[in-house]
Amino acid sequence: MQSPTRTESSGKLKRPANNSKVLKEKFVEIYENFFKGNDPSAGRPHFWSELFLLKVNSAYLTRCLTEISQDQLLTIKACIGNINKIFLNAIEMMKDETTKRKINAIETMCVLLQGIFAKKFNNFSSDVINLLTGLNNANTVFTQLVDAIKHLMSDDEAVIKYEALRLAVVIVCGNSNINQNSINEFFMENDIFDPLIKIIIAPETSYVAYEAIMLLGILSNYNKHESKNPYMTKITEIKDESVFQKILNVVESTCKKCRNHYIEIQDDDETYKYSVSSALSYIIPWGMSGSTKEQPDITDPEQAFTIVAVLLVFYDFVNNNKGFVIYISKSIAEYPESETSLDGHSFLDFLSFTSYLVQHNRSARTASYIKLLLFVMLILTEDVTFDSRISDGRKSFYVRLCRQRQPLLPSVKNPRPLVCAILDIAIGFINHNMRKKLQIDLYSLVLGIIQRIMSYHKKFKVELSYHWSELWHSLIGLLKFILSNYDNFQHDHSSINEILVPTINIINLCIAFGDSFFPDAGTYDKLIYEIVRSNEVFEVNIQDPTKPTPQKFSPFEHAFANINTICQHFHLKIEAWKATNRVKTLLPEQVLSIINANYDSLNLITPEKLDIYISFSEIPYHVPFVRQILRMVVEDFKRREVLLD
């Protein structure tokens, strides 16, 4: 048989003139026989050891599996038998001493399992297990498989560790709903926690730390609400700061990369200048590279956010490991003074990315990740040590915050305590997410973060220099939006009240205790000024109970008491001053002067429990959300195209 020849000009293979058949690749020939229902291993004792020395043709094997339907897989006995043989012998070759056989066995297993998992089975777990091992042999075989993976994850060769990790990811994420993948039970019975941690912190496997952290996070969430999960238990017990630092490094890389997708499309410093060329690979689908877009949709970068799935792990560590929260606080306190004006600490990048995401909240997927980020911030701001670190006026940072949408907050170029950036993020969410279908859950979390921050400052009398007027504008604007649309919301009123009441309470906290954390008396004057200026917003009190419209707000009469008193008191003083001085219009400075001169006759009540809140708890209220986002995280993780460094 004449072999293919290579042309001197192009170097491409040229079919012989007599059109004789080209020899098939041995791997292809063998698997072609398998999928035809033949058994090329019959009577050949060394068949499998020889097969797994052959380079795996992943593309061909994938194509074969794609062309077979799930019904054919389950009904053709010869096909079932051959897949079973391939699977069992691949497990055996994972234990071989030859590196090449181990790698080829794992590669074969990955392609085989991915092809099978892609099918739509009626009963995922039982159908897959029956196909791979038979139901009677499942316990023995899958126990051996997990044990082999665990052993290879501790191999001396980094490449073997990576391949074992990759196989574990394929198995665990076989079904996007990992709780319905009963194969994962074998990873609970014989957990791979220790080798995973070693991969995460070892320098030689740093290039796969992201994958290892993600696998740890996914396994720790497997049926964690139904039974004791060994991974979650061990996460709560971790004390090794090298693990904490690696988690933060990966979070930093993730947040920085995702934030930069927004910046590449719209430069915050030049609001209407778009830099499209560097972001085309993220915003233009394959096959459409000729398309142009003068002002690309700023939400397009979300399509590249498969890596933000790691934020679930960040949340789990913050929520379940007190030592991790302490480490974050310590890392902020110990950050070099010379670098505090630069964007470079992992938590700074987390805050920066969060600011961009909350202002571009346009999909259910984005909203879910925002909720996860807000969980993290809520939990952290409940910690007194963390609050003391972010509020320390001697430790200032510059955080790049999103300035891509109106209204913009004042541009701040000087370093500030980190608490200022967190408040700016909260304001950014409030200002840019008012819509008919108000996201009650997200607003409640944002208001909870503000309340926790202010409660700390009130309790410990920690002064904070901040553009407080921006916070009051946002809160009053939110109140105006809710009160003017109260009857039009598609939510029931009890849900809307979950936003209305805390918004009023935050304003009340400022009225009652602002002098304990405002930097000067003038700041308090400006608060009263903003309340008086927005008098029409607060005209919902029960002055005339015969009128039906105000009556619907009767539950808030007590909450509005101080606000109404302030509005009425200073309105009378201002009108009296205008009459005495025969002027119709006052300048802001004149109004502030009147306010400052008339506190003595102002009688306010001191509301109770404004700084009291219920600590965050995942169970029972947030369990449905955690299950939902876990599925989203697995789907995004499976779609990833790149690994973080």
From TrEMBL:
Keywords from the named record: Membrane, Transmembrane, Transmembrane helix
Keyword Kinase found: no
The keyword Transmembrane belongs to this UniProt entry's keyword annotation: yes
SMART domains attached to this UniProt entry: DUF1741
Domain Armadillo-like helical, residue spans: 410-641
Location in or out of the cell: Membrane
Pfam name, any one: ARMH3_C
Primary localisation category: membrane
A single GO cellular-component term on record: cytosol
Chain coiled-coil ranges: none
Domain of life according to the entry: Eukaryota
Protein name: Armadillo-like helical domain-containing protein
Lineage, top ranks: Eukaryota, Fungi, Fungi incertae sedis, Mucoromycota, Glomeromycotina
